[in-house]
């Protein structure tokens, strides 16, 4: 379960990627942002583009602004919810190494789950060292499906604290970077059900501390850190939970992911995503990964090895608006788990629309409607839909 689960993921998982590279090219060939000119304009003018008069936050972001972003959680697994993220963003010239974000967020869902925390990302040392870190607290009520069946086993996990982050050093070729990951949590899981399955008894009604350090190997050639249109992002992240790092349980986490973007002419572009998540050792059942493609209920299909793939095709209608379609498939392999079962292939797909909310910086926002094995799901997006998982 990523970043304390769904709630903190909703409040703290907006696009946060940074990397030392060349200037991000503007997809619509707009003139470069001029912070000096922006400072001379009336405040309200910062939210409208001087070239077409449309709503646009390019100059506001370039100046360094405070943006309150409402969070609308549409995930059926937690019965929906609302939240708010207070974002303090500085991006003066559209270069990756100048993007800094500080976010304070909180959210609550229909089933009583909640979370709040702080997240920051940026670069130092002339963009050679990129960092991200977050701290938070929350409580998540969600269901697991033992044996891959249809009977939900609802449990509540209280995250007393969570501290996670990474620091990576760009190599001579700045598209490559290596660094360390860390993840420290204290959780307590409760389940109001007699006759617990033996596989989860060691994880229920007790406090578990996890502590992990690991390594990350990354490659990033994307043209834009928030709404990529060309380039590739590939990474392998590892985390090793051992008693040497303060963990009560010894288990390892491996994440391998690839994201590719390209153009099929002036008005068409594509995206491809594949990922694999593997856990080994004495892993708590609520740390087991799940299929996460759009349209698939969160936590519904879990396994010690989870594979995801999704493809996306976008049609640019004009300088502001675009529409897209996407389709994905996922598979959860239980391996040696006594609690979960192999999922088989799980298919999903849908359609979406995007508005270029920051033309000079090439950033989109919009909405997706996804269909999967259960009820349709609506997602509100800022930046690309895969930004939660991209570097």
What's the CATH architecture name?
Beta Barrel
User: What is the typical, i.e. mean, pLDDT?
Assistant: 83
Radius of gyration: 21 Å
Number of helices: 3
> What is the general shape?
globular
Organism: Sedimentitalea arenosa
InterPro entries: OMP/PagP_B-barrel
Keywords: Signal
Signal peptide: 1-20
Describe this structure in words.
This protein has one domain (6-382): Beta Barrel (Porin), CATH 2.40.160. A hairpin with a 5-residue loop joins strand 15 (363-371) and strand 16. The protein has helices at residues 6-12, 35-40, 58-63, and strands at residues 65-73, 81-90, 100-109, 114-124, 129-144, 153-170, 176-190, 207-220, 231-241, 251-263, 268-281, 305-316, 321-333, 346-358, 363-371, 377-382. With 391 residues, the protein is mostly beta strands. It has a 16-stranded antiparallel sheet with strand order 1-2-3-4-5-6-7-8-9-10-11-12-13-14-15-16. The longest helix has 7 residues, at 6-12. It is built from three helices and 16 strands. The chain is globular and about 65 Å long. 5% of the residues lie in helices and 50% in strands. InterPro entries: OMP/PagP_B-barrel. Residues 1-20 form the signal peptide. Keywords: Signal. This is Bacterial surface antigen (D15) domain-containing protein.
Annotation keywords:
5% helix; mainly beta; 16-stranded antiparallel beta sheet; 391 residues; OMP/PagP_B-barrel; disordered N terminus; signal; Bacterial surface antigen (D15) domain-containing protein; single chain; Porin
């Amino acid at each position: 379960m990523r970043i304390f689960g769904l709630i903190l993921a909703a409040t703290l998982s907006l696009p946060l990627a940074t990397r030392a590279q060349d200037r991000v090219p503007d997809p619509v060939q707009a003139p470069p942002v001029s912070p000096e000119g922006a400072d001379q304009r009336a405040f309200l003018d910062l939210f409208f583009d001087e070239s077409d008069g449309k709503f646009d936050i390019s100059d506001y972001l370039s100046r360094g602004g405070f943006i309150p972003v409402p969070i609308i959680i549409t995930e059926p697994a937690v019965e929906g919810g609302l939240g708010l993220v207070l974002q303090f963003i500085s991006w003066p010239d559209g270069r990756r190494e100048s993007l800094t974000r500080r976010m304070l967020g909180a959210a609550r869902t229909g089933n009583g789950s909640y979370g709040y925390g702080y997240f920051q990302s940026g670069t130092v040392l002339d963009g050679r060292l990129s960092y991200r870190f977050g701290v938070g607290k929350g409580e998540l009520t969600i269901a697991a499906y033992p044996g891959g069946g249809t009977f939900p086993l609802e449990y509540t996990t209280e995250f007393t604290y969570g501290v996670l982050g990474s620091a990576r050093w760009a190599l001579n070729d700045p598209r490559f970077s290596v660094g360390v990951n860390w993840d420290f949590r204290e959780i307590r899981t409760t389940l109001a059900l007699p006759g617990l399955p033996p596989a989860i008894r060691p994880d229920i009604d007790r406090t578990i501390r996890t502590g992990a350090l690991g390594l990350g190997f990354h490659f990033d050639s994307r043209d834009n850190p928030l709404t990529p249109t060309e380039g590739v992002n590939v990474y392998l992240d590892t985390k090793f939970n051992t008693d040497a790092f303060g963990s009560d349980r010894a288990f390892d986490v491996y994440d391998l992911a690839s994201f590719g973007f390209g153009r099929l002419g002036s008005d068409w572009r594509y995206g491809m995503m594949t990922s694999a998540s593997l856990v080994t050792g004495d892993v708590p059942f609520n740390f087991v990964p799940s299929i996460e493609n759009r349209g698939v209920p969160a936590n519904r299909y879990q396994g010690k090895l989870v594979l995801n793939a999704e493809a996306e095709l976008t049609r640019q209608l004009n300088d502001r608006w675009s529409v897209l379609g996407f389709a994905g498939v996922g598979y959860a392999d239980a391996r040696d788990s006594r609690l979960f079962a192999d999922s088989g292939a799980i298919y999903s797909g849908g359609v979406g629309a995007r508005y270029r909310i920051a033309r000079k910086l090439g950033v989109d926002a919009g909405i997706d409607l996804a269909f999967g094995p259960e009820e349709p799901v609506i997602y509100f997006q800022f930046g690309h839909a895969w930004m939660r998982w991209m570097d």
